[in-house]
């Protein structure tokens, strides 16, 4: 593992969190194969792919793109009514997140540190990065920082921190490509960020042609797992385990840690158009901050079920989805949540609003479309 002395509870926590949000028990067959084989094995065409485990869904212009187990990528050009497989995906590892900043250009991330890029709206994909290369990038950055600390004016504590990061980075190389990326976000066709297990975090300024490590930039010395990165051109939010929530207000050049009232896992965070922050995660935890993270108030989610995904919709309302498939909507900036009348799906891993206003849910049995008129039919929890 990345840290030889890492307590087994950290590994168990990662596994439990992934099971909770991504139903990774369904990916067991793929994970049983050697990592190197899956990185070089193109995703198979499968007639049942549309009913397979999907871990994330995104908009690519008017098109919808979903990613999931065994390297499956699904496309819809009718707002989620019908789906088909992408023509070419070069890997068979589980893909955990996807984002398209434009209708044509998109990126997906997944297990074994893989980053894929599409330049044709998701039809075909090419591998830009894997765990081996990611580990080399991290260790080169750590060596540079360790060298600068030895020759600079840093105190003993900071020098030891730099040395520790170098040891951990060297552990990444020794482990091989076994660390998953769990989140991806691109501000535009050039600038993007990927985050994952054990604090793995990289950034690009040239559309993925080259990458730099953020592990010395994000103040995450314990290497907490990072599950999501979201934002816009300048403001970014990174959510992770053990209450970890980080923010950048300068396009990712610097990050600061936000003090949060919950010490468990955040699976995501979002910023509304009124600059309100909303974080959500395990056991129904949903919290709101109207002052940039200085103070927080809890939002009643109705039941202690993991909240796996959230989005701000076109009408500025907020939708959260939990692991049971239940959907919660807020029309008051996150102050309160009301359950939709829509019957829960068999689970939920991600959601996005289609161009026609429908809500598209990803989950263990594929994709579900919720008609626009059902998003306003609410009942009390």
From TrEMBL:
Short name of one Pfam family: PSII_BNR
Domain of life of the native organism: Bacteria
Residue stretches making up the Photosynthesis system II assembly factor Ycf48/Hcf136-like domain: 182-285
The keyword Cell membrane belongs to this UniProt entry's keyword annotation: no
A single GO cellular-component term on record: photosystem II
Alphabetized Gene3D superfamilies for the sequence: YVTN repeat-like/Quinoprotein amine dehydrogenase
Any single biological process term in GO: photosynthesis
Sorted UniProt keywords: Photosynthesis, Photosystem II
Transmembrane spans: none
Protein name: Photosynthesis system II assembly factor Ycf48/Hcf136-like domain-containing protein
Source species of the chain: Aromatoleum tolulyticum
């Amino acid at each position: 593992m990345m840290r030889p002395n890492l307590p087994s509870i950290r590994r168990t926590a990662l596994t439990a969190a992934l099971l909770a949000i991504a139903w990774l028990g369904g990916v067991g067959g793929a994970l049983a194969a050697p990592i190197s084989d899956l990185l070089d094995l193109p995703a198979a065409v499968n007639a049942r792919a549309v009913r397979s485990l999907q871990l994330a869904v995104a908009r690519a212009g008017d098109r919808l793109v979903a990613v999931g187990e065994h390297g499956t990528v699904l496309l819809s050009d009718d707002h989620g009514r019908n789906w088909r497989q992408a023509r070419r995906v070069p890997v068979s590892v589980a893909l955990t997140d996807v984002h398209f900043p434009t209708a044509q250009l998109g990126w997906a991330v997944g297990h074994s540190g893989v980053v894929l890029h599409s330049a044709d709206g998701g039809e075909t994909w090419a591998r830009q990065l894997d765990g081996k290369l990611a580990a080399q990038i991290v260790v080169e950055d750590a060596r540079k920082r360790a060298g600068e600390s030895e020759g600079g004016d840093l105190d003993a504590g900071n020098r030891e921190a730099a040395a520790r990061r170098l040891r951990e980075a060297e552990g990444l190389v020794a482990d091989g490509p076994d660390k998953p990326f769990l989140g991806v976000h691109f501000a535009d066709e050039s600038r993007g960020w990927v985050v994952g297990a054990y604090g793995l975090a990289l950034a690009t300024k040239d559309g993925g042609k080259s990458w730099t490590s953020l592990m010395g930039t994000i103040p995450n010395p314990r290497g907490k797992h990072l599950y999501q990165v979201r934002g816009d051109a300048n403001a970014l939010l990174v959510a992770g385990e053990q209450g970890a929530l980080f923010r950048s207000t300068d396009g990712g050049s610097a990050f600061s840690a936000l003090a949060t009232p919950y010490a468990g896992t955040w699976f995501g965070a979002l910023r509304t158009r009124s600059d309100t922050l909303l974080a959500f995660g395990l056991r129904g935890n949903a919290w709101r901050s109207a002052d940039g993270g200085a103070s927080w108030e809890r939002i009643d989610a109705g039941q202690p079920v993991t909240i796996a995904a959230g989005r701000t919709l076109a009408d500025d309302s907020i939708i959260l989805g939990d692991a049971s498939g239940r959907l919660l909507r807020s029309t008051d900036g996150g102050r309160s949540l009301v359950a939709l009348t829509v019957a829960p799906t068999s689970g939920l891993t991600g959601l996005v609003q289609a161009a026609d206003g429908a809500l598209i849910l990803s989950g263990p049995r594929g994709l579900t479309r919720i008609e626009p008129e059902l998003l306003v039919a609410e009942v009390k929890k």
